[in-house]
Amino acid sequence: MANKGPAYGMSRDVQSKIEKKYDDELEDRLVEWIVAQCGSSVGRPDRGRLGFQVWLKNGIVLSQLVNSLYPDGSKPVKIPEAPPTMVFKQMEQIAQFLKAAEDYGVVKTDMFQTVDLFEAKDMAAVQRTLVALGSLAVTKNDGHYHGDPNWFMKKAQEHKRDFTESQLKEGKNVIGLQMGSNKGASQAGMSYGRP
Fold first, then answer.
1. Domains in the chain, number
2. Can you say whether residue 30 is alpha, beta or left, with left for phi > 0 and alpha for psi between -120 and 50 degrees?
3. For the chain, N or C: smaller number of CB within 10 Å?
């Protein structure tokens, strides 16, 4: 990575706004979920934004998390024997997590970029991705989610409706309220311009 000095002016303001979005209470809940989902072998981070970032930085904990949401035998992310020490290998591990999370159903707008985590640029985005992943796991309710289901909100489910032909024909005869009505409307008494 390139050496970066301190940020000044607008760059500093933008970075401070991004850092203010980070939620310490959400961090505690996410740590509890990751430990419940993956087991105590993943350890616990030091409290705070940077401790959380260091814990997730090499991608191993994230990979174990996403693998735990799949049934045995179909793990989407390969986890190396020894944690990667080279920067590009760590970033590659994070990218594999992001691909697996997207395949699981997390939408692209909820995903963080690799540098958001690796360089701690936007740890709030990392939290958003993990919350979206947890919400999907609770919603799927396939037995692979571990932890308190109240930690995450369930996503809205599709509610498909089947209408009969006669119901569809009746709907064509109804004038919607957005169309309005012109009962008794006329332009009598309206004048524009000079007489």
1. 1
2. alpha
3. C
